[in-house]
Amino acid sequence: MKYSEQLLTDKWKNKRLIILKRDNYCCKKCNSKNNLQVHHKKYINGRMCWDYPNSFLITLCKICHDKLHKETKIEVIKDKKTKTKDKKITKKQKRYKKLYPNMYNFYESVKKDK
Description:
Blueprint: H1 3-6, H2 10-22, E1 36-40, E2 42-44, E3 57-61, H3 62-71, E4 75-77, H4 91-99, H5 101-113
Parallel strand pairs: 2-4
Antiparallel strand pairs: 1-3
Helix pairs in contact: 4-5
């Protein structure tokens, strides 16, 4: 999904509202209350715009937001949540992992060593 499409979703609108409320509906740079936007301080490769910790987001007015993007390059970081290998796990394995987490983790670590 394109970034512009993500900004139209209810998930983003809800996240945006949380940040605006947290920041008292006020630009954190100039204290303006007009044309407020939510800025991502950093981008996480592969994440949807709403799937960020609140600490990565800040309320800015349009003027401060545009100025910030003109003057600085926003850092893009690797997503630690996503794994390089996307392995599927069976229902039986999930049940085993839930019942015997220590044994399951041990078994997985031994498998990796082979």
